[in-house]
Amino acid sequence: MMSRNEGHFRGYALMPTGFFDATVSWRGGRIDRIEGAPVSEAEVVESRAAFAVPGFVDTHVHGGKGCDFMDGGDAALRIARAHAQFGTTAMLATTLTAPEPELVAAFKGVRAAIDASSSGAATILGVHLEGPFINPSKLGAQPDFARGGDVAEIARLHAIAPIRVITLAPELPGHDALIDGLNAQGFKVQIGHSNASYEQAAAALKRGALGITHVFNAMSGLHHREPGVVGAALAHAIHAEVIVDTIHVHPGAIRVALRCIPGAFCVTDATAATGMPDGSYQLGSHSVHKCLGAVRLADGTLAGSALTMDQAFRNLVQVLGLSYAQASALTATRAANYLGLTDRGVLAVGAWADVVVFDANLQLQRVLAAGLDVQGIE
């Protein structure tokens, strides 16, 4: 008799080298055997059969199913379970700009969720600290608690739960040296919520900022005489988040980012409104409203998203015309690589058995997180 995290999938599966007609087996939550023969993606599409891709990796998630990571308590575990239902099997818990005591409460909730290691939930790999070290003129929907970088505050928070990514505005005083120090400590620094000039952003990328937070959004835009952060990103960045709901960024601009930034990957920027009906929700200290697929402040400013990773995959294929393999790289493999993970974002022997199964219409049929079936797939 098979244990709860021992099993197999038989059918078309996307491996690092392409699709295989294969049997993928796992034991103890990790893939231990793959047997099969290569097939073309065209054969998979023409067959109208179900197919498996690696579980999604989302580095920018604020909430879901009515919960926000800033709520603390058991919100983090609820969010991890909610996003697993949409195919996300690994994520970074993303905070909002807030006073330190509120961040501490959120970090404690994330720590509890990491320690709980709940079955059927996305693995929380750590924290994306989105602010508070951002430009107050580019808050977007962030609460107005922006402040200058504080190494001691980062250390206190990191001691509670591991910080993997830090978003900051490089133009703020002292942030050039801060980038150097954070790099030396192993944090991944991203430019975001920034009004930097092209020159300032390019210099930050040169000195070690590794990526761009939701490129195009909440940053100085591209003008042919003032290229801004967007221009620096397109000219120099290797990695960047892109919100592929086609609301935050026009499909044409998404194409530009994917053509210019070789390691670009998709994120949801999902909020508590994700997976919920239209109505009012909280985003940190802000009240936001979900309507027509978007989440906004009262003044109409976009406030995170209601995007799920399975919908991002569909948008990449059905709106942008990408292949399944390209969409999988953008929703799983590239983010895992960015985080330095070799055992997530791929279907390979030794990797975690994080598996998403789609039908021919790109609707979720099954999600496995560490070899265990996720319940309540929608």
Q: Which labels suit this protein?
A:
378 residues; 6-stranded parallel β-sheet; 10 helices; alpha/beta
What would you note in describing this structure?
The chain is globular, with a radius of gyration of 20 Å. It has helices at 41-47, 75-84, 100-116, 151-160, 175-184, 198-207, 228-236, 251-260, 309-319, 324-338; strands at 7-15, 18-27, 30-38, 51-54, 56-61, 63-64, 67-68, 88-94, 123-130, 163-168, 188-191, 211-212, 239-243, 263-267, 279-283, 286-291, 294-296, 302-305, 355-358, 364-369, 372-373. The chain is an alpha/beta fold and 378 residues long. A hairpin with a 5-residue loop joins strand 17 (294-296) and strand 18. Helix 3 runs parallel beside helix 4 and helix 9 (309-319) packs across helix 10 (324-338). A seven-stranded mixed sheet has the order 3-2-1-4-19-20-21, covered by helices on one side. Helix content is 29%, strand content 29%. The chain is built from ten helices and 21 strands.
